[in-house]
Amino acid sequence: MELGPISEWVTAIAEIAAVCVALFLPVYDKKKEKNKRTRNMKAIFGYLIKKALDEHDTSNLESYFKIGYLIIDSDDDKQVYSMVQHAIEILKNEDIPQDKKTQDITKVLEYLKH
Question: Quick check: 58 and 91 in contact, CB under 8 A?
Fold first, then answer.
């Protein structure tokens, strides 16, 4: 049984590695893009929630929430939207004192930072 020259073995291993990279790279890029989009969404919601808390106006936050809802495609996005919806409910509830609102919103903002 003859195994052949080492150069053919090296070439075959390189071709197999190239095929593996070609198959894996699109999956990696898609996951990386999804994580980037989720991170950016959290940052924008964090900013809008702080602004709504300071200005006592949730119109911008609600508008972005409604528009962004159309692009939810992962469980991470669903969790973010659940937390933001909870924050909107807190901000709009007039029965909650301002200091309690601040405490509750701080918890939501901490979640959005991670």
Answer: yes
Q: How many CA within 13 A on the CB side of residue 62? A: 9
Stated pTM of the model: 0.75
Three-class secondary structure assignment of 32-100: HHHHHHHHHHHHHHHHHHHHHHHHCCCHHHHHHHHHHHHHCCCHHHHHHHHHHHHHHHHHHCCCCCHHH
pLDDT tier for residue 53 given thresholds of 50, 70 and 90: confident
pLDDT in tens, 63-92: 888 888 887 888 888 888 999 999 999 998
Asked whether 75 and 83 are in contact (CB, 8 A), the reply is no
